[in-house]
Each structure stands twice: as structure tokens, then as C-alpha cells.
Amino acid sequence: MSHKHPVRTIAIDGPAGAGKSTLGLGLARHLGFLYFDTGVTYRAVALAVLRRGIAPEDEAAVSALAEGLHIEVLPPRPDDDLPYLVHLDGQDVTRALRSPEVDAVVSIVAAFPRVRRAMVAQQRRIASGRQAVVVGRDIGTVVMPDADLKIYLDASLEARAARRHLELTQRNVASRYSDVLEGLRQRDRLDSSRADSPLRPAHDAVILDSTELSAEETLAQALALVEARNAALAPHQSAP
Ligand code: DC
């Protein structure tokens, strides 16, 4: 990647539980960029499917539904504890997107090509013309192949399961480590083996392995990557 301007768009991809949300949010706050977690678009499809009583495996019905949805990502209200708000057809669904019911079906609907095409279009519209940290599975490869910096955040399955388990426990959601591990293993398999846009690093992504790193250390390494890209600019081109 060659740059004529400071880093404006950052793509973060990687498997479930690698810490992409924590890193993405940290980077966005540091840089003053929009934080956009593209998983919310697939979660919105899953929620709509559940609410309409459509079978998640019914590809034609799910695809038709997805093609008619409108999703917006907005900055949070000042008194809110949420990092962003998601509106589905004008209704705030931010919290509903994180339910176990949505978790259980989202990988199924996210594998359908027509669903992916519709969501990629929504993701590009939401991110367009903004300074943004965009987080997902196929951002560097499909959604924003021209992103200024691409990070593929990885971690071992065990480390990811331990973090998820701790996070659930802290939210007072009862869970067993072995169930969390198995759930992640299944999501890995679905996300990596689907024919359309499987999870994989872009050829020009920087691979960051967070297995042995704290959230703070991971953020520090990513900020160093941004600074290195900006420092590589020609001397006469200064930041705005
Ligand atoms: O990151 P998450 O758990 O919110 O993602 C939910 C699902 O959506 C998960 O099955 C992966 C999928 N996803 C995707 O296929 N492509 C993206 N860009 C983001 C998420």
C-alpha cells in the first residue's frame, strides 16, 4: 500500500474473540475516528429473521428479507454506556443484537451470498467518506480492499475462549468454559469454510497475534503501526 495522505481507514479482521472490538474501539477513540463493527449488520439480519419467524436455513426467504433492510450506525448518546447505536429500519436494536438467540443463528445467515452482497453494500455506505476503524471478517479482502491500514488480529482458540468466558462472567451471564470453547470452534469452522468471503488475512494485512498480549499492549502495537504509516509519508505532506 502506498499513501499520499495520513491513515484514514483502518480494517481489522480476525476470528471471533480475538479482541477486534476492544482494539477497534480503542483505536477509534485515540484517533477520533468512527468505530464500525460490521458484525452488527449480520446480527441485524439474524434478529429480523427471528422476529419474523423465518427459518434461518431458508436461504431464499432470509436473502429476500436482508435485501429489504436498512441499517444505520450512529454515535452513542452522551449518557449512554454503549460505543454506538444500531438502528434497524429506524428502530434502535443495539442491545437486542447481543442476545444468545442471535448468536446462535448469525453464522448461518452470514454465509448466504445474497445476504453478504446486501450487507457489504450497507457497510460501504455507512463507512463512506468517513475516517473509520472498520471491524469484521472480510473488511481488508472484500469490503474495503483500499483501506490505508489492514490488521489481521489473531489469538489461540484457548485464549479467545478464556476471554469470552471472563467477559460473560463479568456481565453475570452464566457460561461454562468448555461450552464457550466449543461455540467458538464451531463459529471458526463456519466463518473460515464458507464459500463466499471466508475468513482469511488480506495479502497486505499486518498479522497481529494477541495470544500473549493484554488489550493495552495490543492497542499500543496497533497505534505504532498507524504512526509508522503516517511517518512514511513524504516530508512535505503534513497531517491536516
Ligand atoms: O463479530 P460478530 O460476532 O458480531 O459477528 C457476527 C457474525 O457475522 C459472525 O458469524 C461472523 C459474521 N461476520 C461476517 O461474516 N463478516 C463480517 N464482516 C462481520 C461479521
Q: Would you write up a description of this structure?
A:
- The chain has 240 residues and is α/β, with parallel strands linked by helices.
- The chain has nine helices and eight strands.
- The strands form two sheets. A five-stranded parallel β-sheet has the order 2-6-1-7-8. It has a three-stranded antiparallel β-sheet with strand order 3-4-5, covered by helices on one side.
- Strand 4 and strand 5 form a beta hairpin.
- Helix 2 packs across helix 4, helix 3 packs parallel to helix 5 and helix 7 crosses helix 8.
- The longest helix has 17 residues.
- The two termini are 20 Å apart.
- The site of 2'-deoxycytidine-5'-monophosphate has 14 residues, from helix 2, helix 4 and helix 8.
Question: Which helices and strands appear, and what pairs or packs with what?
Answer:
Elements: E1 9-13, H1 20-31, E2 34-37, H2 39-52, H3 59-67, E3 71-74, E4 85-88, E5 91-92, H4 100-109, H5 113-127, E6 132-136, H6 139-143, E7 149-154, H7 157-170, H8 177-193, E8 206-209, H9 215-231
Parallel strand pairs: 1-6, 1-7, 2-6, 7-8
Antiparallel strand pairs: 3-4, 4-5
Bound molecules: 2'-deoxycytidine-5'-monophosphate.
**Proportion of residues in β-strands:** 5-15%
Write down how many β-strands occur, each being a DSSP E stretch of 2 or more residues. Answer: 8
- What is the 3D form? globular
Ligand inventory reads: 2'-deoxycytidine-5'-monophosphate
Would you tell me the structural class of the helices and strands?
A: alpha/beta
Q: Counting H and I runs of at least 4 residues, what is the number of helices?
A: 9
How far is the first residue's CA from the last residue's CA? 20 Å
Please, what is the average pLDDT? 91
Task: Please provide the ordered H/E string of secondary-structure elements.
Answer: EHEHHEEEHHEHEHHEH
Strand numbers in spatial order across the main sheet: 2-6-1-7-8
Q: Give helix % range.
A: 40-55%
Unreliable sequence segments? none
Report the major sheet. Answer: 5 strands, parallel
